[in-house]
Amino acid sequence: MLVDSFNRQHDYLRISLTDKCNLRCTYCTVENIQQGSNGKLPIITADEIETIASAFVKLGVNKIRLTGGEPLVRKDAKDIITRLSKYPVELTITTNGVLVDEYLSTFKAAGIRSVNVSLDTLSKKRYFSITRRNEYDRALANINLLLQDDYHVKVNVVVMKGVNDDEVLNFIEWTKNTPVHIRFIEYMPFSGNEWSSEKMFSHQQLLDLISSKYEIIKLLNEKNDTAKKYFVPKHKGTFAVISTMSEPFCSGCNRMRLTSDGKMYNCLYEKQEMDLLTPLRNGMNIESLIQECVLNKKAMLGGNNENENWGKLNTETREKSMINLGG
Ligand code: SAM
User: Fold this and answer.
1) pTM to 2 decimals?
2) What is the CATH number of the domain that holds 32?
3) Is the confidence at residue 179, as pLDDT, over 90?
4) Which of the residues 15, 217, 264, 307 could staple to 274 if both were Cys, CB 3.0 to 4.6 A apart?
5) Candidate from 74, 93, 100, 118 with most ligand 1 atoms within 8 A of CB, to mutate
């Protein structure tokens, strides 16, 4: 069992399959970011992902989420999904949805039942201005395909003032007749994404806005939930808020991350990484390194809360972006 010095048990691993993406979301990455590391960094192979994942499973991991970049652009993603499905874990995926139609049979065979799809707008024109790619129709059609196939579909919406905050109520309206689970995410600062607190739309602001039109009821949270869940009576879907900025949820954190160049991070905001790939390639046992990394986990936000700058964080201090670390 992976327990840190604050007695938090870690049983959830998020694996970034690649830092490449087929979209260019303005808030996530920048057009000139080096994608795919230009072949300079050692990209982890499918064999290595499986070996590292199996070490985590041996240490108590029972949930693995594949993310990125966009996990489905990786050429051997189907192979990796199939291999990981053989382990006693709940296997899930976070995707922008664009390529989902090519993966439905793989998901089914792998026993995946829940998929998180990112979609920040219900307007085709705005989708293009946010993602800089013309994939709205395909992404939305794929969400509908997943719903038709009875997947539990969570739609991730990063809410940004002046960008898409005017669509919050449209997303709630979508839950009326559709069993879709909207997750509003507070906009977070990352290297190069020009975050500022003025652009953030907080948990409380979301609740104020939504309750101006709908009756909302809070659902009970499960252990380790990052999202605060709600529903509108008689709606088929639900909504939730991921309040990383205004109300961080570190005390129940059970997450660890593996990047596509084989580095382990114990927090999205941790600056210290633990290289697992080089030791693995040198024939070392990586289990003790995983344990060491978990033991070094800070109480909150990779230690960034300690300088009281959390919430006003200078984005330039972030060395990695979301696409490097895996969202
Ligand atoms: N490509 C996949 C996708 O689009 O879902 C997986 C990777 S993406 C980095 C994972 C999630 O992180 C997405 O829901 C995305 O909206 C979210 N994300 C990226 N940058 C963010 C930021 N600055 N603040 C909050 N959420 C962010």
Assistant:
1) 0.92
2) 3.20.20.70
3) yes
4) 264
5) 118
